Amino acid sequence: MAPQQLTRADVLASRVRAHQLDRETGTVADTAVLDLGVQDTGADAGRWALAVRGLTDVRADDLALVWTLRGAPHLYRRAELPGVAAATAPFSDADAAKRVFDAAKPLTAAGIPVLTALDTVAARMREIVTVPTVKGEMSRQLTALVEEPYLRYCRPCDAVHLYEQPFRLAALRAGLELQPDTSPPVLQPVPGFTPADVVPAHLDVVRGYLRLHGPATPQQVAAYLDAPVADVRAHWPEDAVEVRVDGERRWALAGDLDGLTAGPVRTTRLLGPFDPWLQTRDRSLLLPDPVRAKDVWRTLGRPGGVLADGEVVGTWRPRKTGRRLRVQVELWQDVPLAALEAQAEQLAAVRGVEPAGVEVSG
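RE: above sequence
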């Protein structure tokens, strides 16, 4: 059978539905992005990403914040943390070495497999963190308990301590979560935590990427995970079906094929800088203009993205004065002001401040 032919518009519309950016209400249980994790980088980032997907009434103990993919803090359903630990663990020692970046070199030179190193760090972390502990204090104690290949001189800190990525990637292995809204981060034990032996299907990270960001290629999934392409191919779903997106070869889950041609969507959302929608690894499909893409995905001072009917059509930034929040928007095409104002009011409510309107330029 010939591969299904899709357009860029088909893909963007299907992703809006997969991300549930077209709905008004939802629950923790039925929010799809929580399967892959919601990155919580920036002020209220995780809460806002959930709010724009209709999830506003969340009990604090329903969610947990942990370091997982790319070493970034992500929100997950608390009850699923054992499965999350199994799902987000490196596939192999080669995968672990890639995920910890420069920390792999001294470990490998010392004959220490990186997976073994992560388990060693996790074991020491469990010994140290029996009550809520500030990251710096845990780091200080950890430095005294591990050998030289685990350590590096940090110029900004003017101190010797563990490499950052092994530190972060070992934390959930150790059964540690992050206290929300703490700076510097505070880690604490997850009550009764034991990693799952088997990855639940809905938490599988390769399937999760294809569900939310597909159709996609193994290279794109690997880039999202910081994993080797070979490991992603080895874990490629058996029900992944080849399709063509404007002639380009990609894959989607067989169960998602009908949704790929379900037609356009009509919705306006102010997406945070690290919203799951913007975490896709085919940025050129999401935003073909390279100048605008460079602005949206800048390294420092990243703005949020204005999503209208599946297209990123501008950027936005919050401007807070006292207890009032104004949203400054730069648009590349017309968007109804009422839709932007509704989003700005919702953002103010999530942040617990008063809305001060929307200022539009462009």
